[in-house]
Structures are given as structure tokens and as C-alpha cells.
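User: I'm preparing a small set of examples for a lab meeting where we compare how different chains pack in three dimensions. I only have the primary sequence for this one, and I'd like the structure in C-alpha cell form so I can line it up with the others. Please keep the answer compact; I'll paste it straight into my notes.
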Amino acid sequence: MRYQLEAPILAHEQLAEYEFELTLDAPQIATGAQPGQFVQVLYDQTYRPFTRRPFSIYKPRPEAGTFSIVYLARGVFTQGLRRKRAGERLSIVGPLGNSFQPDPRPECRHILVAGGVGAPPMQVLAERICGAAPTVVINGARTASLLVGCREFAAMPLQFIPVTEDGSMGRKGVVTDVLGELLEAAKTPLHVYACGPTAMLRAVGTLCATYGVECHVSVETVMPCGLGVCMGCVVRVRDAGPAGFRYVRSCYEGPVFAADQILWDEAPGRV
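Assistant: Understood. Below is the C-alpha cell output for the 271-residue chain.
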């Protein structure tokens, strides 16, 4: 069930130069949120936001009735969101979309790949499966200040591997460097889950296909309505019909898809 709420802001913390975490009091959403789901946010009633924006659900705490969103304050919308203060309210709709479904095979090893602000769904998924099954989290970004959720991942009973392109934290390189090593060395069945920039998802999906490993990804697309009405977030997926493909809504049928079903466009950042 989804809800439209004017949720009180409990905390608004700056994590890095552009990165912020906003914690909301929203028991209805915190209780039912699943890994990979999101909320649509409207911070003001003026024309400047015009439409809501999607943000992944992060740190759902049903016992406290809270959850967070993480964002980078770089555009007009997020700069406006940055001005919100604890004690004010934020208009949200959610939880929306489908979710990651953990592989039920008892012998399966789970590999979670996060890129930048793609970490929130991986954090929620990791909390659900770590401790019960072997779990690895590969968390990547250009530099250490853009890594999200490191403290939370490091506190979980799992193998945590941070990766930065400039080597400022963890391994130097990109997430597929580490993923390729894990796929190559695998002795048991694997399932890969990923969320992050489209170019990263394409690379992760291609690598998994090479090794015949099942992979699910949460795509990043523009979602003007988030409710499956406007058709502004469509993704091309494989289809048995004459065209060989069909369009599905990432906000409604997604945002989580089997990576081998997505037809990635050649243009970076598009699916």
C-alpha cells in the first residue's frame, strides 16, 4: 500500500560537500518498505519543483517509524531540498515500485554492488540477508567523499569492499574490477544485485552475463509522476514479439529488473 504524507523532518545532516541525509518520521512507509523501493518527494508547493522527484528509501526503521533519503545537492530541486530544516514537513508518496528479491538458494552467495547514491537500496537489502547467507558489498564512487553508507555496511556481518577511482578509500579502481575477481574465483552459486549510475549497471550486467551469473539491477531514470501514469520513465526490455522489445515503466514494473532483460542504449546514462 502506498501513502501520501506530510512527514515531519527529524534530522537533516550534511555528510560530505554535496551529500546530505534527511530523516523522516513516517511509520506507514518505514514499516512496509522493501529493498529497492522509493518515495516521490515534493519539498515546496510552488511551480519551481513542478513535479516530484524519486529518492530511494534508506535505513527504514519500523520500530522507530523512520527512514532516510540521501541526495547530492547539485541541481535546482536538491538545492531547494537542502533548505529544509528539522521540524518542518516534507510531502512524500510511497513506498513505490517493486523490490529486490533475495535468492532463496541456501548455498547462494550474494554480491551487492553500489555506486554513489545507489547505496541506499543495497543497505536495506544487506540488512535483510546478511547473517543468514554469505554476503559481499562492493561500494564504489569517484572519491571517498562520495561513498554512501560505509559506516552502516562496515557494521554488518558481511564482507565490505569500498572502491574509489582515485584510491582515496579502499581499492583503487571501479566496482567491476572487484566484481570480476569474485566471479572468476566463485566456487558456489552467486546472485548479483546492483544500483547506481546507468553506465555502471550496464557494465555489471554485461560482466555477469559473461559468467552466467544471475543479476538484478535497480535502474536510475527520470520519474515525473512515480505512479505509472505519465510514461516518462520507460525502459526497453526484451520481448518475444515481432519488435524484439517492449517498453515498461521503471516506476511501476521496476525499478528492479533482471539485467539480462534490459536493452541498454548506446548513449551513456540511458536505458
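A couple of notes for your slides: The chain has two domains: 3-96, 100-220. The longest helix spans residues 198-211.

User: Perfect, thanks.
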